[in-house]
Amino acid sequence: MRIGELAERAGTTTRTLRYYESLGLLPARRTGNGYRSYDEEDLRLLQQIRTLRDFGFELEETRPFVECLRSGHPAGDSCPASLEVYRRKLAELDECIARLSAIRERVGTQLAQAERARAELEAAATAPEGAPEPRCELTPPGQ
Amino acid sequence: MRIGELAERAGTTTRTLRYYESLGLLPARRTGNGYRSYDEEDLRLLQQIRTLRDFGFELEETRPFVECLRSGHPAGDSCPASLEVYRRKLAELDECIARLSAIRERVGTQLAQAERARAELEAAATAPEGAPEPRCELTPPGQ
DNA sequence: TCTGGCCTTGACGTCAGGGTCAAGGTCTAC
DNA sequence: GTAGACCTTGACCCTGACGTCAAGGCCAGA
Fold it and tell me: Pseudo-torsion of CA A7, A10, A11, A16, nearest 10°?
């Protein structure tokens, strides 16, 4: 099959396939007229790449899986190098989740605190004997 | 103070400060010879930006905080626009954490499964009556 | 006066993962 | 024989937040 058909069947674009080829990730054979030629096996490799990418793997990280499949293994993650990538990714994910959770806590705390401060400010503003309102912008010049 | 000193005191670079100025985020006054001139207030604004950035806020998202400070408020998050950014960021963080957690589960499952498969394969390989080993690569031609 | 350090603007590079266009070759159907 | 769909390479564009380099201005100390 040619590049357009493969792209369509895999739900991607021809540009992407040429890009993968330029990285040596998914080389293509050529027909007599120079057109790229792919088979069902290439579709499997490509699906492996796209699946991993959807999980947030970088393209370079998908390489061991693709080479594992290409060397005849039934699954891309049958090889030690792929398992190593899985483990690295798990550690990365754990660290990232922990970092984001810590930030989430801090931002949540900041928001709650700032909301309390604002509520106090507004309460003071509605009270007739409160502090002078902060008329920052758009105060009519006549007043 | 000049750009080099501000950069050093804020723990960033002169390039970064020029970049912020090009965005209109942290404009600088100029001295007679054209050098940028900053004061302690600018340092506060810059610190606000850097703190938010460390939390993963994009530069544009820090703008309400900076403008809030610049308009005389005691804290960058005293203004409604800043609170709105906080809330948006919280939602973003929650979604991101949820997404990463789901992926983490799937990758963890995949890893465990692949490890089991490999263990079985190796057990079969050591057992003399096992299934034929997958001699994928480097099988000597004589054998 | 010279040297070294700071400053200026402008322009290009980086990283990933492609999008988009141009100019042209190929193939199929009518 | 020609229109239209497909293919080719090459080249430039995009995002974000800067890094890096070039070529030159300004200023303080020896």
Answer: -50
